[in-house]
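During the first year of the project, the team set up a workflow for recording each protein of interest as an amino acid sequence followed immediately by a discrete structure-token representation. This format lets reviewers and collaborators read both layers of information side by side without switching files. As required by the reporting guidelines, we include two representative entries from the current panel. The first entry is reproduced here exactly as it appears in our internal archive.
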Amino acid sequence: MQIMKTTTTNRSTLLAGLTLTILLGAATPVHAWSAPKHIAVTAYGDFSIVPPNLGPYLIPGSDGDLYVQGLPLVGRFALTGKGISLDAKMHVNLSGELDVAGTGVTWFPVTITTTIEGVKTIVFDGQGSADEVNLVATGKVSLTGRGPYEGSKLELTFEEIGPGDSNTFNFQGYLTPAPRP
């Protein structure tokens, strides 16, 4: 008899808990627990502003490698996707380690700026890295939104458009918009 009473009590407790969960869940707005959508994006970038004298940024190593330290690069960055179109500038401070053939790794902070209502504004910033083969880069960039994109995330992969070290890049990835209250 005790087993039957315990089973009935457990079922009643479970049913009461389930009912409470359903009632409280119905009172919670849907957007509070739904995950943000990813928006597929593509972009084009080029580094049209490169320092005329690269000497201060290139350090030959005693091991035969070439070390790049803080090479400032600036160029156009055009991002498009469903509901987004951004014409901006991409600022990179490139560092890396390359062999004599231009093969190795690079890493860099990235800042994306644009002009909004006449004011220069940072809209994304973050970090990137790339593998270089004969000075042709493929890599990824992870950016966090600022200003009007505060709370958004931009994740991109990129590939340099050849031939050779062209300083032009195709990007693809996704934008995760900031959660809405």
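The second entry, processed by the same pipeline in the following quarter, appears below.
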Amino acid sequence: MGSIRRNTAVDHLPVRLIMSLALIAAIVSILCGASGWMRTFLAEQQIEYQCRQLEASLRTMVQSGATRDVDDPLAAEGAKRVQQFTVPASVVFLSFGGNPDPTNQGWFTSELLGHGAAIFYKVQGGSTRVLWFPEESFRFREGLCVDSHWTLHESGHSFIIHQGGKYELIFEHVEKNHENFILIHQTDDIE
């Protein structure tokens, strides 16, 4: 009887080995799936954190009240903030003023949404996220350089970043036709 038990135990070893390998494979596949979700989550959190820092900085800028008339090339500078963004490589877009992909089909547009008082962003594997701001003080517009002078596009455009990297953006409190806007452009040598 003792020899029968020993043989039964030996017969169970391959079954236990296969069950252990299957369990390890299941755990590894769960961790791989979760790591993709975690990368998306962390990239979204990184962008949102930087946008919230920008929001705090722009609130103080807007409260200062100093604006520049974009139609007057000799006007004094408006209040400015320089903000550095480290955008993750997985970004699909980061947009100030409008949703560049309203249909979610990859057809990008620079049209403004409402008064342009929002920041939209999307990373690969995630959905479009939006941060809304008060329309009376946050009206984002892309800057256009004309004769070494930053002004607004006539029709108004949102400022869009389509790829990851480090960006240094200038946000200036400006005025056009007695309406206040936040003009956005990348840093350059133009003063």
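For the second entry, the following points were noted during internal review. The radius of gyration is 26 Å. The chain has one domain: 36-186. Both points are flagged for discussion at the upcoming steering committee meeting.
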